[in-house]
Write a structure and sequence with these properties.
By secondary structure, the protein is α+β, with helices and mostly antiparallel strands. The protein has helices at 22-29, 32-35, 47-58, 109-123, 139-147; strands at residues 7-8, 12-16, 68-72, 78-88, 93-100, 129-134, 151-162, 165-175. Helix 1 (22-29) crosses helix 3. The structure holds coenzyme A.
Length: 177
Protein backbone atom coordinates (compact mmCIF):
# COMPACT_ATOMS: atom_id res chain seq x y z
CA UNK A 1 0.00 0.00 0.00
CA UNK A 2 1.11 3.51 -0.80
CA UNK A 3 2.17 5.33 2.38
CA UNK A 4 0.46 8.58 1.44
CA UNK A 5 -2.56 8.04 -0.83
CA UNK A 6 -4.71 10.93 -2.10
CA UNK A 7 -7.19 12.38 0.39
CA UNK A 8 -10.59 13.77 -0.57
CA UNK A 9 -12.16 16.59 1.44
CA UNK A 10 -15.36 18.52 0.87
CA UNK A 11 -13.83 20.97 -1.62
CA UNK A 12 -10.32 19.62 -2.21
CA UNK A 13 -8.18 16.70 -3.28
CA UNK A 14 -4.80 16.27 -1.61
CA UNK A 15 -2.69 14.16 -3.93
CA UNK A 16 1.01 13.27 -4.06
CA UNK A 17 3.38 15.28 -6.27
CA UNK A 18 3.55 14.39 -9.97
CA UNK A 19 6.27 15.10 -12.55
CA UNK A 20 3.97 17.59 -14.30
CA UNK A 21 3.81 19.77 -11.15
CA UNK A 22 7.03 21.54 -12.18
CA UNK A 23 5.49 24.77 -13.53
CA UNK A 24 3.08 24.99 -10.62
CA UNK A 25 5.92 24.39 -8.14
CA UNK A 26 8.01 27.14 -9.69
CA UNK A 27 5.15 29.68 -9.82
CA UNK A 28 4.01 28.79 -6.31
CA UNK A 29 7.31 28.81 -4.41
CA UNK A 30 8.72 31.82 -6.27
CA UNK A 31 5.71 33.90 -5.20
CA UNK A 32 7.10 36.37 -2.61
CA UNK A 33 3.95 36.12 -0.48
CA UNK A 34 4.29 32.33 -0.27
CA UNK A 35 8.06 32.46 0.34
CA UNK A 36 8.05 35.31 2.86
CA UNK A 37 7.97 33.12 5.97
CA UNK A 38 9.38 29.88 4.53
CA UNK A 39 12.77 30.52 6.10
CA UNK A 40 14.17 26.99 6.28
CA UNK A 41 15.24 27.03 2.60
CA UNK A 42 16.45 29.77 0.21
CA UNK A 43 13.62 31.25 -1.91
CA UNK A 44 12.97 29.63 -5.29
CA UNK A 45 14.24 31.87 -8.08
CA UNK A 46 14.86 29.45 -10.96
CA UNK A 47 13.35 26.37 -12.48
CA UNK A 48 16.16 24.03 -11.40
CA UNK A 49 15.29 24.65 -7.73
CA UNK A 50 11.66 23.82 -8.48
CA UNK A 51 12.81 20.65 -10.25
CA UNK A 52 14.75 19.64 -7.13
CA UNK A 53 11.64 20.15 -5.00
CA UNK A 54 9.47 18.06 -7.33
CA UNK A 55 12.10 15.30 -7.48
CA UNK A 56 12.49 15.32 -3.69
CA UNK A 57 8.77 14.69 -3.28
CA UNK A 58 8.59 12.16 -6.13
CA UNK A 59 11.30 10.21 -4.25
CA UNK A 60 9.45 10.26 -0.92
CA UNK A 61 8.27 6.62 -0.85
CA UNK A 62 9.44 4.95 2.35
CA UNK A 63 11.06 8.14 3.62
CA UNK A 64 10.27 10.27 6.67
CA UNK A 65 8.39 12.92 4.70
CA UNK A 66 5.62 13.42 2.16
CA UNK A 67 3.89 16.30 0.40
CA UNK A 68 0.44 16.53 -1.07
CA UNK A 69 -0.49 19.05 -3.77
CA UNK A 70 -3.81 20.70 -2.89
CA UNK A 71 -6.22 20.71 -5.84
CA UNK A 72 -9.69 22.29 -5.90
CA UNK A 73 -12.51 19.89 -6.73
CA UNK A 74 -14.51 22.58 -8.52
CA UNK A 75 -11.99 23.52 -11.21
CA UNK A 76 -8.87 21.38 -10.76
CA UNK A 77 -6.66 24.33 -9.79
CA UNK A 78 -3.49 23.59 -7.80
CA UNK A 79 -3.61 26.04 -4.90
CA UNK A 80 -0.88 24.89 -2.53
CA UNK A 81 0.90 22.06 -0.80
CA UNK A 82 0.93 20.36 2.58
CA UNK A 83 2.68 17.42 4.18
CA UNK A 84 4.66 15.90 6.98
CA UNK A 85 8.37 15.78 7.56
CA UNK A 86 10.74 14.63 10.30
CA UNK A 87 8.40 11.67 10.79
CA UNK A 88 9.82 9.75 13.77
CA UNK A 89 7.97 6.45 14.05
CA UNK A 90 9.62 5.44 17.35
CA UNK A 91 8.37 8.56 19.08
CA UNK A 92 5.14 8.80 17.06
CA UNK A 93 5.64 12.39 15.99
CA UNK A 94 6.05 14.44 12.82
CA UNK A 95 6.13 18.07 11.78
CA UNK A 96 3.48 19.48 9.47
CA UNK A 97 4.22 22.05 6.76
CA UNK A 98 1.87 23.90 4.40
CA UNK A 99 1.58 26.76 1.95
CA UNK A 100 -1.28 28.23 -0.03
CA UNK A 101 -1.24 30.55 -3.07
CA UNK A 102 -2.37 34.05 -2.02
CA UNK A 103 -5.36 33.92 -4.39
CA UNK A 104 -6.71 31.06 -2.24
CA UNK A 105 -6.22 32.74 1.14
CA UNK A 106 -9.18 33.66 3.34
CA UNK A 107 -11.46 30.85 2.13
CA UNK A 108 -10.73 28.21 4.73
CA UNK A 109 -8.85 25.95 2.30
CA UNK A 110 -5.88 25.40 4.58
CA UNK A 111 -8.07 24.75 7.58
CA UNK A 112 -9.88 22.09 5.51
CA UNK A 113 -6.54 20.69 4.30
CA UNK A 114 -4.93 20.50 7.73
CA UNK A 115 -8.03 19.02 9.26
CA UNK A 116 -7.74 16.11 6.82
CA UNK A 117 -3.94 15.86 7.08
CA UNK A 118 -4.06 15.83 10.89
CA UNK A 119 -6.72 13.12 10.86
CA UNK A 120 -4.52 11.11 8.49
CA UNK A 121 -1.54 11.69 10.78
CA UNK A 122 -3.26 10.51 13.94
CA UNK A 123 -5.10 7.55 12.36
CA UNK A 124 -3.02 6.22 9.43
CA UNK A 125 0.45 7.31 10.55
CA UNK A 126 -0.40 6.55 14.19
CA UNK A 127 1.12 9.81 15.35
CA UNK A 128 0.75 10.95 18.92
CA UNK A 129 2.17 14.45 18.42
CA UNK A 130 2.10 16.80 15.42
CA UNK A 131 4.49 19.76 15.53
CA UNK A 132 4.65 23.03 13.60
CA UNK A 133 7.36 25.67 13.48
CA UNK A 134 6.24 29.20 12.64
CA UNK A 135 8.02 32.53 12.24
CA UNK A 136 6.52 34.78 14.97
CA UNK A 137 5.37 37.42 12.46
CA UNK A 138 3.43 34.86 10.41
CA UNK A 139 0.15 35.75 12.09
CA UNK A 140 -2.04 33.96 9.51
CA UNK A 141 -0.26 30.72 10.19
CA UNK A 142 -0.37 31.13 13.98
CA UNK A 143 -4.07 32.00 13.80
CA UNK A 144 -4.75 28.91 11.69
CA UNK A 145 -2.92 26.59 14.09
CA UNK A 146 -4.63 28.12 17.12
CA UNK A 147 -8.00 27.48 15.49
CA UNK A 148 -7.01 23.85 14.94
CA UNK A 149 -6.14 23.45 18.62
CA UNK A 150 -2.33 23.62 18.48
CA UNK A 151 -0.70 24.86 21.69
CA UNK A 152 2.30 27.16 21.68
CA UNK A 153 5.24 25.64 23.56
CA UNK A 154 8.02 28.16 23.27
CA UNK A 155 10.51 29.99 21.08
CA UNK A 156 13.38 28.37 19.24
CA UNK A 157 15.92 31.18 19.22
CA UNK A 158 17.93 31.83 16.04
CA UNK A 159 16.62 28.54 14.65
CA UNK A 160 17.05 29.14 10.90
CA UNK A 161 19.91 30.95 9.19
CA UNK A 162 19.19 32.51 5.83
CA UNK A 163 20.98 35.21 3.87
CA UNK A 164 23.19 36.31 6.75
CA UNK A 165 20.42 36.47 9.34
CA UNK A 166 19.10 34.17 12.06
CA UNK A 167 15.35 33.72 12.56
CA UNK A 168 13.55 32.70 15.74
CA UNK A 169 10.65 30.26 15.37
CA UNK A 170 7.71 29.43 17.59
CA UNK A 171 7.10 25.74 18.21
CA UNK A 172 3.51 24.53 18.52
CA UNK A 173 2.05 21.07 18.87
CA UNK A 174 -1.18 19.14 18.78
CA UNK A 175 -1.47 15.91 20.76
CA UNK A 176 -3.78 13.06 19.79
CA UNK A 177 -5.53 12.86 23.16
C1 LIG B 1 -0.57 30.22 6.44
C2 LIG B 1 -1.67 30.26 5.36
C3 LIG B 1 -1.87 28.86 4.80
C4 LIG B 1 -2.97 30.75 5.99
O1 LIG B 1 -3.93 30.93 4.98
P1 LIG B 1 -5.41 31.39 5.34
O2 LIG B 1 -6.10 31.71 4.09
O3 LIG B 1 -5.34 32.44 6.40
O4 LIG B 1 -6.01 30.07 6.02
P2 LIG B 1 -7.30 29.28 5.60
O5 LIG B 1 -7.19 28.80 4.21
O6 LIG B 1 -7.54 28.24 6.63
O7 LIG B 1 -8.46 30.38 5.66
C5 LIG B 1 -8.90 30.84 6.91
C6 LIG B 1 -9.82 32.00 6.73
O8 LIG B 1 -10.77 31.77 5.69
C7 LIG B 1 -12.07 32.21 6.12
N1 LIG B 1 -13.06 31.29 5.53
C8 LIG B 1 -13.80 31.56 4.44
N2 LIG B 1 -14.55 30.48 4.12
C9 LIG B 1 -14.26 29.52 5.02
C10 LIG B 1 -14.70 28.18 5.20
N3 LIG B 1 -15.59 27.60 4.37
N4 LIG B 1 -14.19 27.46 6.23
C11 LIG B 1 -13.29 28.00 7.09
N5 LIG B 1 -12.83 29.28 6.96
C12 LIG B 1 -13.32 30.03 5.92
C13 LIG B 1 -12.09 32.17 7.62
O9 LIG B 1 -12.87 33.24 8.06
C14 LIG B 1 -10.62 32.25 7.99
O10 LIG B 1 -10.27 33.53 8.42
P3 LIG B 1 -10.44 33.90 9.98
O11 LIG B 1 -9.93 32.73 10.76
O12 LIG B 1 -9.62 35.13 10.16
O13 LIG B 1 -11.88 34.09 10.17
C15 LIG B 1 -1.25 31.23 4.21
O14 LIG B 1 -1.14 32.53 4.72
C16 LIG B 1 0.05 30.83 3.52
O15 LIG B 1 0.12 29.86 2.78
N6 LIG B 1 1.12 31.62 3.72
C17 LIG B 1 2.38 31.44 3.03
C18 LIG B 1 3.11 30.14 3.39
C19 LIG B 1 3.27 30.00 4.88
O16 LIG B 1 3.54 30.96 5.58
N7 LIG B 1 3.10 28.75 5.36
C20 LIG B 1 3.20 28.43 6.78
C21 LIG B 1 4.56 28.37 7.26
S1 LIG B 1 4.59 28.01 9.00
Amino acid sequence: MQDFPPIQTERLTLRPFQADDLDFTFQHFSDPQVAQYLLDEPPVTDLSQAQEIVQFYLDSAGKSYNRWVIVTEADGQRIGTCGFHKWNKSHQRAEVGYDLSPKAWGQGYMQETLHAAIQFGFVQMKLHRIEALVYPENVRSLHLLNKLGFKQEGALRDYFYLDGKFYDHVVLSLLKK
